[in-house]
Structure prediction request, 251 residues.
Amino acid sequence: MSLEKEEIRDIEQVKELIKSYPDFPSEGVLFRDIFPIFQNPSALDCLLNNLVEQALEFAKKQGSIKIDAVVGLDARGFLFGPTLALKLQAKFVPVRKVGKLPGQTIKFTYVKEYGQDVMEIQADAILKDEKVLIVDDLLATGGTCSAAENLVSQLGATVVLNQFVIELSDLKGRDLLTAPIYSILSFGAWIHHLKKVTESLRFRIVRDDTESQTAISGLGRRVGQLDAGQTENAEYQGTKPDQSPHVRLAS
Ligand SMILES: O=P(O)(O)OC[C@H]1O[C@H](OP(=O)(O)OP(=O)(O)O)[C@H](O)[C@@H]1O
Ligand SMILES: Nc1ncnc2[nH]cnc12
Prediction:
């Protein structure tokens, strides 16, 4: 028996499919998992359409510029890069973790939200003066995309746009990037921080102060509910900057 998937029509519904995992892959990281979107064809269709429309709108705003290459970042950027390239009539070029690309390459070492890595690009994949759009699933601290920007400029080309499905706005990755930044969805990390604060408040509570006990246990319950899968909805309702779709240009 096959279960029908819910029909997804707008990007707000797509956002609700993204699952959040505290302390993965390491403590303190709130991991945003995009793969549930890929289990629902209408959600994937909606997301890809948004991505393509946003890139086309950008190109038009810049005086109908021609984007020559879409650079996708290893590995989740590869889920979006080729489709975007096809729709923009551009070539697709991968930036890969070190040791995966044959021929002459250039490398760049960088730091990301949970560790350090080396990125690599084939030296002849992008030509001097070409206009490049970099696409990735997620912008966190900006280390990964900044490495890609560096590789593209080493080859004499120009990054005209960095495009992301998700931006973790509190991590301020955009401050590290040079080219304009567009993201489809934005998440704040404040709920995770709120949970940590609540945990420490529970330890500090004065036993006979019933009023603050009630308030703090209410807050604890709310955070508990949010952790049990309601995080995204709560973020919509609670914070204006987290509403999507989200289009921002770097200042
Ligand atoms: O902004 P940053 O702090 O640099 O983090 C963002 C990067 O981290 C993740 O990639 P990861 O290296 O985990 O690779 P994956 O796509 O292969 O899972 C994500 O897909 C971005 O590329
Ligand atoms: N918090 C996060 N969730 C998913 N992917 C990530 N890559 C870097 N930080 C991430």
